[in-house]
Amino acid sequence: MTCGSFDPSRDYLIMLFPEPFWFTATIRMATSVALQTVLVAAIGVG
Amino acid sequence: MLVTRALRHWLAALNVGLGLFLGGAVAAPILARLGATQAADALYAAYKLTCHQWAFRSFFLFGQQPIYSVQELADNSLDPFTFQGTQAFGWKMAFCERDLAIYIGLLLVGIFFARRRAVQPCGFVLYGVLILPMAIDGFTQLFVGAKAPGSSVWRPGSCSDSPAPGWCCPPGCRIWPRAAIQPVCSSHQHRMRTTVRRPVAARVSATPDLLDWLRGLVSLAFVLLVPMLIIAPAWRGLVTDRDFMLRGFRENQVARTTGLTIRELERVADAFVAYFQGPRGQIQMQVIAFGQPRQLFDEKEVTHMEDVQALIQWFSAFPADRGRSRRRQTCIRGGLRSRGGVPRPRTAVEHRADGRAGRAGRRSLPDGLRRAVDALSPDCVPK
Cβ contact (<8 Å) for B300 and A33? Predict the structure, then answer.
């Protein structure tokens, strides 16, 4: 099974950064953005 | 751990969250109807953070009709904006009709996706087309929303068509009465206060002028800029975090699947960090995988990474970064070339310049970046 145009069994790029990596990255990014948004909102309301 | 489980089942968590959010908006009028006014008021106050809650743009439950126009509300001396409800009129939902449509749409798509996980992404073009009505609605409101909410009923004011007898406004102005409770002290000696209802001017606006458009543009710029200022640093922090990459390698057992040693993976992480911060170019490394030397990426991956680098640098670029040490960039560039990834030869002048700048610049680099440079660039190692 290929992932887009890359083959996870052969291409090193996708072997280095498999789907779980991106899941974790997305969670981290979303958390960071959410915290900063709350901070900005708090400053704006305050 | 609850948070971890919720993140693993993100779609279920999102759908449940949306369901609860919608339920809360419906619960507010139900609680008000049941006489639990404090609980209802608390919900209205909480949802006020997410919506303007204008009465003439909200659905009403348990009343004579599901929606009321500004005219109908004003005719009954009710504030078209803040009116929550009565036994006769019913109680409005805790957010407006548009929000109701948006959140129901999100929930329906979430449920659909939960049942049909194999559905393919629609692509950015179709996404843009589908989101266009909402974007136009929200965008145009920046300019007209403050002037004419419910534009069909906000008519140009005049002495004759003014909704309240005796009201008059200058030509070109729009005026609408807001029912307000005005305390009138009839006698301070007897501490008596009489409350009367009478219309007072709520909003008076002239026809759109340059200042209004300017204000709209500034608002738009602010709305667009703030998310960028929040997202871009978070994005840049993510793609330049060497430890995050190494942790990902460990957790996903990349050493086993790639045949690279921990030391090699550290070099790879350093290379990516340097690549995302360096000048535009190609990334390539010679590695030992399963005991055999090889180029880490093939041509297709190198080309793909060029696009990724351009995207990341476009998204996370700041003027402050562009002005930062050119020497650092020169050093990294030299390193990338020296690994053989980019076949473009350097001139003698370039080589000397890179060497001087590299040695000078390296001393001022932070530890993490210096490590990255060492991994990439023998040219930059002090002699």
Answer: no
Measured distance CA(B296)–CA(B287) in Å, rounded: 6
CB contact under 8 A, B244 and A32: no
Give the DSSP H/E element, type plus range, for residue B174: strand B174-187
Q: Which residues of chain A make contact with B238, given a CB cutoff of 8 A?
A: 25, 28-29, 32
Tell me whether B231 touches chain A (CB under 8 Å).
Answer: yes
Contact check, Cβ <8 Å, B238/A29: yes
Average pLDDT over residues B357-379: 47
Residue type, B176: W
Cα three-residue angle B330-B335-B340, rounded to 5 degrees: 130
The span from the CA of B162 to the CA of B155, in Å, is 9
Question: For the range B234-241, what are the long-range contacts, defined as Cβ-Cβ under 8 Å and sequence gap of 24 or more?
Answer: B234/A29, B234/A32, B234/A33, B234/A36, B235/A29, B235/B312, B235/B315, B235/B316, B236/B316, B237/A32, B238/A25, B238/A28, B238/A29, B238/A32, B239/B272, B239/B273, B239/B276, B239/B312, B239/B316, B240/B273, B240/B276, B240/B277, B241/B273
Closest alpha carbon within chain A to B302: A13
What b/e string do you get for A21-32 counting C-beta neighbours within 10 Å, with b at 16 or more? beebbeeebeeb
Q: Residue B66: what residue type?
A: P
Token pair for residue A5? Answer: 């145009």
**Who's near B342: CB < 8 A, 6+ residues apart?**
B281, B282, B284, B336
Whether B254 sits inside 8 A of A11 (CB atoms) is no
B346 CA to centre of own chain: 43
Return the residue of B nearest to A42 by Cα: B49
A29–B234 C-beta distance less than 8 A: yes
Digit-coded pLDDT (tens) for B243-280: 999 999 999 999 999 999 999 999 999 999 999 888 88
Q: What is the mean pLDDT of chain B?
A: 73
pLDDT in tens, B94-152: 999 989 999 999 999 999 999 988 888 788 888 889 888 888 877 776 655 433 344 44
Token pair belonging to B378: 């023998």
Predicted complex ipTM:
0.88
Q: At what angle do helices B299-316 and B210-239 cross, to 10 degrees?
A: 130
